[in-house]
Structures are given as structure tokens and as C-alpha cells.
Amino acid sequence: LPHFEPYLKERKIQEKQLNQDINLHHNDRRNGYPNSDELKKGFNIPKINNVIGRALSKTGAYKKLVNSKQVVALIDDDMCINCGKCYLPCDGSGYQAISFDLETYISSVTDDCTGCTM
């Protein structure tokens, strides 16, 4: 469901129900993350200086990417703000592999996606 009205209310209701249904696992961790009680027991939260730059080894120049592997577009519903910016370059390039619903503002990738890296 989108993150705007009238869907936002329904989304929050569904998220609340989902959170109630999730079973705790991994030593009282929900979804792998410590709960607040575990944090109070002295769970080591990493310092900012220890986290800065950890992803740099996983990034690089575009020219170093392996373009021989076939990949297609992916729209993450949790990150999507329904702005349509994923739809515009795809539609303008002639592929038209991303559809955009004007009523719900939901984008979806069709089977026509060729992974053109736009």
C-alpha cells in the first residue's frame, strides 16, 4: 500500500497487526534487532566513528560494474514516495517497462524490463 492517504491508515493498521503477529526469535530479538530491554542490559551500540566508511569497499566507479549480468529494475515499496521519477526515464527512453497508475500513484515493473541501467 502507498504511504499517503487514504491508504496510509490501512497501511498502519496492517503494520500494527503484522507487528503483533511476529514471533520473537534469536534470543528475544525482533527481526534480528535487539529490543529495548536488551539495549538496557548493555548491548554495545557501535560508535559513529566505527561505522563511517564501512560501505566504501562495496562502492566504486560505474565503469567498473559488470554489465554482462542481466538485472532488472526493482521498486522498493517501503522506500517509494510515489513521485514517478522511476517512471519518467523509462517511459522517455522508449522501453516503457515501468507502469505508473495515475489513481494510486503506484509504480510497477513489467516483464518488458531489459535492465538498461537507466
Describe the 3D structure:
The chain has 118 residues and is of the alpha+beta class. The protein folds into two domains: 1-59, no CATH class; 62-113, Alpha-Beta Plaits (2-Layer Sandwich). It is 25% helix and 8% strand. Strand 3 (98-100) and strand 4 (107-109) form a beta hairpin. The model has no long low-confidence stretch (mean pLDDT 77). GO terms for molecular function: dihydropyrimidine dehydrogenase (NADP+) activity; NADP binding; uracil binding. One of its GO terms (biological process) is uracil catabolic process. Residues 71-103 form the 4Fe-4S ferredoxin-type domain.
Which series of helices and strands comes N to C?
HEEHHHEE
Shape: flat
Please bin the fraction of helical residues: 25-40%
Category from helices, strands and their pairing: alpha+beta
Oligomer: single chain
Q: List low-confidence stretches.
A: none
Beta-strand share of residues: 5-15%
What is the first-to-last residue Cα distance?
25 Å
Query: What value does the average pLDDT take?
Result: 77
Radius of gyration: 20 Å
Side-by-side strand order of the widest sheet: 1-2
Q: What is the total number of structural domains?
A: 2
| Tally of DSSP helical segments | 4
The total strand number stands at 4
Strand count, sense and barrel status of the largest sheet are: 2 strands, antiparallel
